[in-house]
Design a protein that fits this description.
There is one protein chain. The chain is of the alpha/beta class. It has one domain: TIM Barrel (Alpha-Beta Barrel). 51% of the residues lie in helices and 18% in strands. The strands form 2 sheets. Strands 8-5-4-3-2-1-11-10 form an 8-stranded parallel β-sheet. Strands 7-6-9 form a 3-stranded mixed β-sheet, with no helix packed on it. β6 and β7 form a beta hairpin. The longest helix has 23 residues. It is globular, with a radius of gyration of 18 Å. The structure holds glyceraldehyde-3-phosphate and zinc ion (ZN). Zinc ion binds next to loops.
Length: 283
């Protein structure tokens, strides 16, 4: 069923595994990720950036495609449709009214007081609709969907205050992670993560899940990380498959013949992550 992230993440937190958020770009991504979740008996979060939402024709189209695909595939595992890096209250409100079951309000780029103010507004509307809310503190490095940032660590006291004053369901404290591939090994602030986990009282979210070694994934989960976002890894694997198939078949023009195999590549990648995150057989 379509559900919010609230129960999913509280359960994951209590049982010490993480639910993957996999970003979607089109119907093939939806099909591949939902099939992976069902095969693995895993809860799953479909991440939709504002740009990807626009690309697919709007939030309403996204919800309709996900609902129809779940019905066609006979999906029984818990699925959340989550707005990824929502930039404004208006964007979150649009997603909520279109039927998203979860939203992220990313107001980490302004002042702390502005973050508290807009996040509170989003929580009020979202919770009225049974929709969960993720907020962010500090900044994730790298670029996603044209949004570029330098790494800035979240402050532990601010994390506690943001949770207490807004009532968010989960928190993404930026602690050295990066959107897109890492240059060298990632250097995550585990000491800070442990501190924040002790005071925040909500499940933590790790952005920039592509390229983080398994050992660090396990450590993050042990410090209360219950949601891990993966986008770039699926794009790399999918696009590589399209390139390979087209290179081997220069005459090919039927999109199903190259998008089909690339859909399988997404599914395999997602299954690998679900096993690594420990969410397989938890639904
Ligand atoms: O919000 C989405 C993510 O944080 C994805 O990061 O593209 O590095 O996997 P990634
Ligand atoms: Zn992110």
């Amino acid at each position: 069923p379509l559900v919010s992230m609230k129960e999913m993440l509280d359960t994951a937190n209590a049982k010490r595994y993480a639910v993957g958020q996999f970003n979607i770009n089109n119907l093939e991504y939806i099909q591949a990720i939902l099939q992976a979740a069902q095969d693995e008996k895993s809860p799953v979060i479909l991440g939709v950036s504002e740009g990807a939402g626009k690309y697919m024709g709007g939030y309403g189209v996204v919800v309709a495609m996900v609902r129809a695909t779940m019905e066609a595939q006979g999906t029984t595992v818990p699925v959340a449709i989550h707005l990824d890096h929502g930039q404004t209250f208006e964007s979150c409100a649009k997603a909520i009214h279109a039927g998203f079951t979860s939203v992220m309000i990313d107001a980490s780029h302004g002042t702390f007081e502005d973050n508290v103010a807009v996040t509170s507004k989003v929580v009020e509307l979202a919770h009225f609709h049974g929709v969960s809310v993720e907020a962010e503190l500090g900044t994730v490095g790298g670029t996603e969907d044209g949004i570029t940032g330098g790494i800035m660590y979240a402050d532990t006291a601010e994390c506690k205050e943001l949770v207490d004053r807004t009532g968010i369901d989960c928190l993404a404290p930026a602690l050295g992670s990066v959107h897109g591939p890492y240059e060298g090994e990632p250097n995550l602030g585990f000491k800070e993560m442990e501190e924040i986990n002790t005071v925040a009282g909500v499940p933590l979210v790790l952005h920039g899940g592509t390229g983080i070694p398994t050992e660090d994934i396990k450590k993050a989960i042990s410090y209360g990380t219950s949601k891990i976002n993966v986008n770039t890894e699926n794009q790399i694997q999918q696009t590589q498959k399209v390139r390979d198939v087209l290179a081997a078949n220069p005459e090919m023009i039927d999109p199903r013949k190259y998008l089909g195999p690339s859909r399988d590549a997404i599914k395999e990648t997602v299954i690998g992550k679900m096993r690594e995150f420990g969410s397989s057989n938890q639904a």
